[in-house]
Write a structure and sequence with these properties.
The complex is a heterodimer. Chain A starts with a helix and ends with a helix. The longest helix of chain A is centred in the last third of the chain and has 34 residues. By secondary structure, chain A is mainly α. Chain B is mainly α. Chain B is built from 2 helices and no strands. Classes of the chains: A mainly alpha, B mainly alpha. At the A-B interface, helix 5, helix 6, helix 12 and helix 15 of A face helix 1 and helix 2 of B.
Chain lengths: 491, 49
């Protein structure tokens, strides 16, 4: 157990550093909606890449993924690497998002899809689906903060205090200068996440006698954990049920796909992708090795989501490293949370409340800020109510957000796709997701859920599109950017 | 194709193997292969404004 006063002290220092960075970022802001939500489309590759990584790799990694490793073994590595392989979608889609975003001034992915199909209804439906399915994901970040801080202090920091701290930090960093303050703080937080994780894993593995001894112990005491299906969790259906929706994360989750609008140029785009790849691969290994180390150093836990707090408070890891890792996990949660809040803010400002006559930049920013506050408070409330269902909520959001993928793919590769088809795909798929998961209680570990959602969404998109005609105001992305894609030699 | 292989090999060829490192090694190579493919993809881009 770690003294609450020590934890509060490092959180205070961490917050002070974050505020300093956010305020510095705010000084470069021009006050326009474009600057607030996408950094004036002038963010370099390294900051964009680290921000993308910090947004993608959330508290899920060092709280839930380590728990899944603890419970089910190496299947967690495969699951996360299938998700990682989904980053390859960026090779195809990043240039397209960036080119159309630059040409038409899109700020949110929902706005882009709405313009492509010539329908504000499509933009609003996509924004609505994103908000509905992202809120549970925000909740998991808050719950992660709560589990961690109350866990490592043995309840010395209450769940309410932990969630309130996370909410205050995420809100401030997103509200201050929008994307600029979020991206800059994300970039620093990603370093905290990575090096604190690396240090903690180093100490944990060292306490076990080194990597060779870790493996030897695993082979002797937990041989099933090194294979699949392992001790039970990673059956083939479960693996598919979890991996399939996560593979499309780079497209389906607007808080990361919106990052494709912020880049300065193609060079920055390439550098961003390389930073994400390097960070993602190594951070995945850190999370999985951490889970395997916890299995040996803090055995017999009933709630595997407590693997990280249990290992941190076991005395195996020095207190200063434990404090650093607490900051790392806090960083992971907050960087994801403030990015989601900012993206939801952009969607509310541009897609939900904006009428045909565009409001001023100040009104768009105000609408976004109100949405950010609402999202964070909403996530905080449900984290306080439902901290025990972290695993289920995190995975449900991935399955639900699949409904946005067919309209996005169709926007760039199928001219015949129509607004009615896109609307049917989003609303029909979302309806099936809610019906199965909430009303019928189908588990996220059941492949029926993601495949039924994806199948419904794809089927409706194709059939309804073929039965209707494209709107006259729809944009033809394929023709409009074909020359630019060829000039940049993008596939 | 690569993703399908990333699922099929551990759950097909290597399934049920205990105490070995075949699955771990395969997935590590799979991750590195994905990185290689993406690097090939992005390095063919031309940066001209």
């Amino acid at each position: 157990m770690i003294a609450p006063a020590l934890v509060w002290m490092v959180i205070f220092l961490f917050a002070a550093l974050g505020f300093f960075i956010a305020i510095r970022a705010a000084r470069t802001s021009t006050g326009t909606a474009g600057d607030y939500y996408v950094g004036g489309r002038n963010i370099g590759g390294m900051v964009a890449g680290l921000s993308y990584a910090a947004t993608t790799y959330s508290a899920f990694m060092l709280v839930v993924l380590t728990g899944l490793t603890y419970r089910g073994g190496i299947g967690a590595l495969g699951f996360e690497l299938i998700y990682f392989a989904g980053l390859s979608l960026l090779v195809i889609f990043a240039p397209r998002f960036w080119l159309v975003g630059k040409r038409w001034g899109f700020i949110s992915p929902a706005e882009m899809i709405g313009a492509r199909y010539g329908s504000r209804g499509v933009a609003r439906a996509m924004a609505g689906a994103s908000i509905v399915f992202l809120l549970p994901y925000c909740t998991t970040q808050m719950a992660g903060i709560g589990l961690l801080l109350s866990g490592v202090t043995g309840g010395g920091i209450s769940l309410f205090q932990a969630v309130a701290t996370g909410a205050a930090l995420a809100m401030f960093w997103a509200l201050l200068a929008g994307l600029r303050s979020v991206a800059w703080t994300d970039a620093v937080l990603s370093f905290v996440m990575f090096f604190s994780g690396l240090l903690a894993v180093g100490f944990a593995v060292s306490a076990l006698g080194g990597p060779a001894e870790l493996l030897r112990n695993l082979r002797a005491d937990h041989p099933e954990w090194l294979g699949v299906p392992g001790p039970g969790l990673w059956s083939f259906p479960t693996f598919i049920a979890l991996s399939f929706p996560w593979f499309f994360f780079a497209l389906s989750n607007p808080q990361v796909s919106q990052r494709l609008f912020i880049l300065r140029d193609f060079r920055a785009m390439r550098r961003m992708i390389l930073w994400v790849l390097g960070f993602g691969f190594l951070f995945t290994l850190i999370a999985v090795v951490w889970g395997l180390a916890a299995l040996q150093l803090a055995p017999d836990l009933e709630n595997t989501s407590m693997a990280t707090p249990a290992l941190l408070s076991s005395g195996v890891v020095p207190v200063w490293v434990a404090l650093l890792l607490i900051l790392g996990i806090l960083s992971a949660a907050i960087s994801t949370l403030d990015s989601i809040a900012l993206t939801v803010g952009a969607m509310v400002a541009r897609d939900v409340v904006r009428s045909e006559s565009a409001p001023s930049d100040a009104r768009q920013i105000l609408a976004g800020r109100l949405a950010i506050v609402t999202v964070v408070l909403f996530a905080s409330y449900f984290a306080l109510e439902n901290a025990a269902i972290v695993d289920q909520l995190a995975a449900l959001s991935a399955a639900g957000l699949l409904v946005t993928v067919p309209p996005i793919v169709g926007a760039f590769f199928w001219r015949r796709g129509t607004a009615a088809g896109a609307l049917a795909a989003i609303l029909g798929g979302a309806g099936v997701a809610i019906w199965l998961a909430i009303l019928l209680g189908v588990s996220v570990f059941d492949p029926l859920l993601p495949f039924a959602v994806a199948g419904t969404s794809i089927g409706l998109f194709v059939l309804v599109s073929l039965a209707t005609t494209p709107r006259s105001g729809a944009l033809d992305f394929q023709s409009e950017i074909a020359g630019e894609l060829a000039r940049h030699r993008a596939w | 194709m690569v993703v399908l292989v990333g699922v099929a090999v551990p759950y097909g060829l290597l399934a049920g193997q205990e105490s070995g490192l075949a699955v771990v090694s395969f997935w590590l190579l799979f991750g590195l292969f994905v990185i290689g493919l993406v690097v090939i993809g992005v390095f063919r881009w031309k940066d001209d404004p």
